[in-house]
Amino acid sequence: MSKHLDFGSSARRALINGAVAATAAFGFPAWAAACDDIASTVRALGPSAAVDVESSLAFYDSRGGGCAWDEENAAGLISVVEAAEDHGLDPMLFHADMLAAKPGIDAAQRDVLMTDAAIKFASAMLRGLSAPPVAKVDRAAGSPKNSEIINALSQALEGGDVSAWLDGLAPRTDSYLQIRAALSTYRSIAEAGGWEPMPAALASKKKRAPFIPALRKRLAIEGDLLTDDGSDLFDEELRAAIERFQMRNGMRADGQLTLKTIDRLNVSAAQRVVQLAVNLERLRVERRNPSTTRVEVNAPAATVVLYRDGIPHMAMNVVVGKPGHDTPTLASTIDTIILNPQWTIPQSIIRNEIKPALKRNKDYLTKHRMYWAGDQLIQEPGPHNALGRVKFDFPNRYSVYLHDTPSRSAFMDAERAQSHGCVRVEKPVDLAVELLRNDPKWTREAIEQSIRDGATRRIPLGEPMPVIIVYETAFVGDDGLVQFRPDIYGLDTQLTLALSERATAMRTDAAPAPEDTSAGEF
After folding, report:
1. Of the ranges 190-199, 326-335, 343-352, which one carries the lowest mean pLDDT score?
2. What is the pLDDT of residue 10?
3. What is the dihedral of CA 275, 278, 280, 283, to 10 degrees?
4. What mean pLDDT, rounded, does the chain reach?
């Protein structure tokens, strides 16, 4: 799909050229008599144009009043605002319609609208557009305050580089750039009409059928089928294309046209555009600058990757929380590995699972090697222990961790949201060896021998490892293919609603952008 992933530099130049022409038509530089009482203009535009009065007044007060925008900066701003769709945002939220050559707006009004647009766009890039976080989702810490954005805008105006300043505010991570490019691709597909819905009859497993040419066209649009010859034959090339589609969508890649596969094929291009835009917002909000060396769990994909210096070094499947037992997003540091851990069982599991089991079987605790220590129920270490033989500990407010498990079959499932919220790791010894690789005492042989000995052993990491748990339902894999995953915890839905509510407020209110409500650092 790399042929689609183009930022469109020629289109960008056209936007800037058009913006220069538009601003020239309105008499910039705008140090005109109309700007003498800029505060009155701000207050008038508050209710009529949904201008953030407080932030705009603070900006002009910091400059001693008067208009602030010249032709060059205005043109740069307009080009950035008109390209807001590249970030999954509606340009109209930043007055794109009013900043174009629209009659009836004087120099002072245009100046205020530009100031408001710049502050709001900068805020959206630096701390997200959406309202405060949903449950079990930590926002990035240290987001700039309005006053810092205002000061930075003033400096950019003085330097004549507003466009460059605004362009540099979005995350520069590979994840963000890749999803931004994918959004452009899928927006183009959606604007071209998307794809035709596939009928349930596709599941009939016929070798030839009149609807197979439509299936070929559908798979070719996303690049899963490399050559569409229009044939009505279900051949090996088509089966391989279905496998690629299934793989990209986190399904069992068997090439079978199951009803679930057909349902995924029928997710529209417009829905994918929304999904990609929501994931861009999530990257702006939750994980702007992750450590280049880290352990990263993606809950919807149910995978963990160990990165070293930004390069994937080790990857494996994990099992994450089932819906209702959501694995939270967080950032922390793995500081301890525990071999042969005991398990202190959470009260919710005691209440909802173990007490009902005791009513059915009075020997349940003995069978599972559990015992009471005061009001705590503990499971002894060993191969039967729910945490398995290895636990990776890191401080967090959710009391979750990564761990081994005696139940190995779940790692082979395509959909692995099956735990109580902690993250079960497919190859825990391999991960432990990697995290301890610079400690000569803890070779693989030493780790495996300690596990066989059976005693609980805590190993502090000489080099603690950053760990993040993310929630990405759209991402680009190491092979360059766009991947999609189901919204297992409904967080995409919640974030879409938050974005919609915020957009409505920006169109109708003069309310300021949300201030920093940080709960964690990504």
Report:
1. 343-352
2. 39
3. -120
4. 89
Length of the chain, please? Answer: 522
Residue 19 corresponds to which tokens in the numbers above?
Answer: 């913006």
- C-alpha span between 284 and 498 (Å, rounded): 14
pLDDT score, position 140: 61
- Asked if 53 contacts 512 with a C-beta cutoff of 8 angstroms, the reply is no
Which run of H or E residues covers position 216?
A: helix 212-221
8 Å CB contact between 306 and 315: yes
What's the rounded Cα separation, in Å, for the pair 246 and 229?
21
CB atoms within 10 A of CB 433: 18
Whether the predicted pLDDT of 365 surpasses 60: yes
The residues near 221 (Cβ < 8 Å, ≥ 6 apart) are 189, 195, 269
Enter the DSSP assignment of 351.
I
Q: Tokens 């993040």: give the residue.
A: 468
| Pair of tokens at residue 77 | 């701003």
Written as six digits, the tokens of 246 are: 């299934």
Residue 52 three-state SS: coil
Query: Which residues lie closer than 8 Å to 117 by C-beta, 6 or more apart?
Result: 77, 81, 94, 95, 96, 99
Confidence band of 519 (pLDDT split at 50, 70, 90): very low
Q: What is the CA radius of gyration of the chain?
A: 27
* Packed helices 146-159 and 53-63: angle between N→C axes, nearest 10 degrees: 50
Predicted pLDDT at 131: 63
Tokens standing for 491? 């967080």
* The model's pTM: 0.88
Annotate 333-355 with DSSP letters as a single string.
EEEEEEES--EE--HHHIIIIIH
SS3 490: coil
Local structure of 312: helix, strand or coil = strand
Q: Which contacts qualify for 219-224: CB closer than 8 Å, 24 or more apart?
A: 219/245, 221/189, 221/195, 221/269, 222/1, 222/189, 222/248, 222/482, 223/1, 223/4, 223/481, 224/248
Residue partners of 85: CB distance under 8 A and separation at least 6: 91, 187
Place of tokens 């207050």: 43
CA 172 to chain centre: 14
Coil, strand or helix at 341: coil
Among residues 44, 38, 39, 48, which one has the least CA distance to residue 509? Answer: 48
Strand partners, 95: none
Q: Is the Cβ–Cβ distance between 31 and 13 less than 8 Å? A: no
Q: Give the residue among 461, 455, 467, 427 at the shortest CA–CA distance from 441.
A: 461
Helix (H, G, I), strand (E, B) or coil at 38: helix
Separation of alpha carbons 502 and 515, rounded Å: 13
Q: Which of 379, 381, 352 is nearest to 366 (CA)?
A: 379
Range 226-252 average pLDDT: 95
Bridge partners of residue 198, in order along the sequence? none
In this predicted model, what pLDDT tens digit does every residue of 387-397 receive, in sequence order?
Answer: 999 999 999 99
Q: Quick one: residue 226, left, alpha or beta (phi over 0 = left, psi -120 to 50 = alpha)?
A: alpha
